[in-house]
Amino acid sequence: MRSQERVLTDTAGPEAIDAILRPFMRLAGELAVRFEAPGSTPAAPGDGPRLTRDILVGGRFLGRIVAEGPAVRARPVAASLESIALAIEHLAGAGALPDATAAADARSGIEAELALSRLQQRSIVSLQPPDVAGYDLAGYYEPAREVGGDFFELFRLRRRGRPLGMVIADVTGKGIAAALLMAFARPVIHSALQAAPGPADALRRTNRILVDELHTALFITALVGRLDVGTGRLSIANAGHEPPLLIPGDGGPISTIEEGGPMLGMFSPLDLTEIQVELRPGDKLLLYTDGVTDALTSTGERFGKERMLATVEAARASSATDLVHALSSAVSGFGEGVLPADDVTIVAVGRH
Amino acid sequence: MAMQTTAERVEAGVPVTVMALSGELDASNYLRLVDDVRPLYDAGARNLLLDLTDLSFISSSGLVSLYSILKVMQGEEPPDPEYGWSALHSMERDAEDGKTQDVVRLCGMQPPVAEVLQRTGLDAMFPSYPDRETALAAY
Fold first, then answer.
1. What is the CATH architecture of A135-351?
2. Do the interacting molecules here have an ipTM over 0.90?
3. Which of A166, A201, A241, A270 is least surrounded by Cβ atoms within 10 Å, i.e. has the fewest?
C-alpha cells in the first residue's frame, strides 16, 4: 500500500507519536499534552488536573500520553485524547508506525481492528448539552460509515455570566487522518474558545496551530459562537462552514448568516470578522454540517439546501429539540437504504 | 457519485492540459481524480486547466483532491489523505505568503461548486475563468 510505504519513511515509533502530540501547546493554561516514551524520565506533574493514557499494542508498552490543565475535565477533550490514543494503537497494530511494533502479526492485526472500531464508537461521543435557564439546546450527531470528522459542542465558558460556547466543525476528507485531525482540533478549539477574548480570536488561534504546528494537509470548516445568555447577544465567527440559520420567533423570514472567512488550516494568518447577532425571545439558531445538505438517495438525488429550508420552515414553531429531530428524521428518511457517506450534525439553540 | 474525466493537450502559447470533469466530485471518487492527474504530470504536463463546466457538485472531499492535484502539479507528492501520519504534516503552505499559483487553473465553475469554493476560501488558490476559451486566452 502506497500510504504505508510513505509512512515508513517517517521517524521511528515513539518519535512519530511524539511528533503527533507535539503540536499541542499551552493554550492560556488550558491544556498541555506530552508523550512520555518508554524508558524516559517522566516530568514532574503540575498542580492541576491530569489525565494519562498508556499506549499498549501487541503486549508492548509504547509510551504514555500525559495531558494536564483544566481542559482535561471537559468530556469532549478527554474523549479526544482517547480517540488519539486509539488511533495510535490502530496504526501501530497495523504496522503503520515503524519500530513501534513487530511486523503486523495476527494479534497486532486484530488489535488494530479493535482499536479502529472503538475509535469509531468513540467518535459517537454523546454530547449532552448543558442546561441553560431560558434556553432549549439540542444536538444530533450521526456518524458516516467511515470513521471521520464532524463534531459539535455546547458548553458554559468560565467567565462572568457563564456565556454559552458553541462549536460545530467538519474535517475535509475521511478515514484515520481526518479522525485524527479532528481529535486534535477538538481540544484546541474548546480550549481556545474558553481562553480567547472572542470567537474570531479562538479560530485564529486554532488556525495558527493547525498551519504552523501541524502543517496539516486536510482542512477544517468550523463555526464557533459565544452567547450572552442574559441578553441573547451572540458573537459568531465562521471559518468556511455552512452558514447558520436564524429562525425568528415572530414568524419573520428565516435568514442565513452568511459572513465568514476561509476554512482552517489553509491560510495564515486567518482573516476573519466576528458577526454580532441577537437571539430575541422565541428565536432559534440552527447549525449543521454538509452531511445534511449532501445526503444522497439511492438514485443519486441530494437533500439540498431548499429541502432543508423547507423542513426547518415547517418545524419552525417547535422547540429546538423537536426542530433538530424533524430535520434529522427528514435526512435519515431521505437517505433510506443508503449508508451515509458523511457525518450528519445538527445543533439548535432556542431562546424561550 | 459518478464522475468522468477527459484530458487533452492544447496549444495556448504554452502547452496546456485541459481536463474536463463531469458529474460529482465527492468522497467516492476524489482519490481517483488525483490518480488521473499524476500520470499527466509524469508525462510532462506543467499547466493544468480543469474545466468544471459539467461538474454539478463538489463535497469537502473534493476540495481535498483539488488541493492534492495542485501539489502533484507543483512536483510534490501529496500525502495519502486517508491514512498515515504523513497526511497530518509535511505540507508547506505557499498561499499564506500571498503568492498565488497558476499551475492549476479552473474554468466553467457552476454556481453550486463556486459556492463551496468561495465559502471555504479555496477559490483564492486557483485562477478561475468563466469558460475554457477565456481561460486558454489568458495563458
1. 4-Layer Sandwich (3.60)
2. no
3. A201
